[in-house]
Amino acid sequence: MEFPRANGTFLGIKLQGVQLKVTFYDAKKKKVAADAVRISARWQDNKPRKTVLLPADATTLLSPPVIKAPYSYRIFLVLVGADDRELDTIQINPATLPRG
């Protein structure tokens, strides 16, 4: 699923098994190097949970295997830049994300 960013670029977010995968795209929807060095994620299912997505390659950040069904919760993402500055915040519903 694509999410527009304030700077005119896009994030592609999907579930890859039990991992959250975030890929960075330019305005023409071509993969580009990630401008975030990490993404903080938090949600609450049966208890409060947090994790950090780290680079899998130059264009993608990946979470540890912690995203579990049923997806009856929202995930709050905070993209963090190299200078520890908050770049973006996004709220997602994992039930609507593509799988694969």
Task: Characterize this entry briefly.
The protein is mostly beta strands and 100 residues long.
What tags apply to this protein structure?
8 strands, eight-stranded antiparallel β-sheet, mainly beta
Write a structural description:
- The protein is 0% helix and 48% strand.
- With 100 residues, the protein is mainly beta.
- It has a single domain (2-96), classed as Sandwich (Immunoglobulin-like).
- The protein has an eight-stranded antiparallel beta sheet with strand order 1-2-3-6-5-4-7-8, with no helix packed on it.
- Strand 4 and strand 5 (48-55) form a beta hairpin.
Could you spell the SSE succession in H and E letters? EEEEEEEE
- Summed up, the domain count is 1
Number of strands: 8
Mean pLDDT: 96
The CATH first-level class comes to Mainly Beta
Helix content: under 10%
